[in-house]
Amino acid sequence: MNKKMIAVLGCSALAASMFSMTAMAEELTTVGYAQVGHESDWRTANTQNYQDVFSNENGYELSFVDCDNDHQAQLEAVRNFINQELDYIIIAPIQSAGWDTVLQEAQDAGIPVIIADREIEADASMYDAWVGTAPKDEGVTAGNWLAEYLDGAEANILVIEGSVGASAALGRSEGFNQVAEEHEEWTILDSQSGDFTQAGGQEVMESYIKSYEGQFNVVVCQNDNEAYGAMDAMDAAGITYGVDGDVVLISYDATHDGLQYTLDGKINCDVECNPIQAEIVKGVIEQMEAGEEYPETTLVEDEAFVAPGIESEYATTMTQEILDGRAY
Ligand code: GYE
After folding, report:
1. How many C-beta neighbours within 10 Å does residue 163 have?
2. Is pTM beyond 0.90 here?
């Protein structure tokens, strides 16, 4: 074979591979995911899940944007997806309010929008589908469990809320408060945002300890990371919590480490919120792609877990086996 032939061969091989690359790129469905941020273990698991499921191997090109808990940045991310003319847009809304304008822009551009994880205040006609969890139900579960556990005893409660304006925080407060209102023997001493972070939980708990030391016997943290921060603050102040402690500790999410603390009896009750949602969203997109009917709303089911030694009508008692089965 002479040099010229090799050059020709090389050229056509290159052309062939370029052709197949273009064909491949054309086949991929482009999806934008405007993610809340990276505030918690729950969020990390959710991000990983989307990156695994919306992979090139599965036929997707995912544009992932971490919006760092900034509503304006999230609106900007969605506008960029619209400008790029992506096939589908998924939004995990940082806050529930303020979506009408950008959703109208997506609708005008003919790009289907799926709201995931949290809820928004916009009319359901403004987006195409919703997949997520039910924070109000989670709040009711936490309240019902506490009522069952305390069995009429007095409760002086401190709440560390999630991020201001997030449906996950609003709903958990609403559900829990609904049960609290039925109990005259309960007082909510204070309720402040820890922003769903460990540092936030610690900071709020430290300030609570200064203001309410000796006056509280229940702490409700609206996610596991806040609970870790609150535990650090209580440890530093010599306040005991959990099944053998002076303070009943309630958390939400039931991520692996949260459940480890529940198994260890440090968290009394951890209400689950499942971050593994991408496969469901992908299913909805596939149905949309095929022009089939698809569910407009899909609720991801949650349960609740309690420390060993606690039996509950509302929650499952933790075991090592349950912990071993928890991947996130
Ligand atoms: O509970 C928390 C987070 O939106 C349900 O957001 C989610 C919440 C979750 O960062 O850990």
Report:
1. 25
2. yes
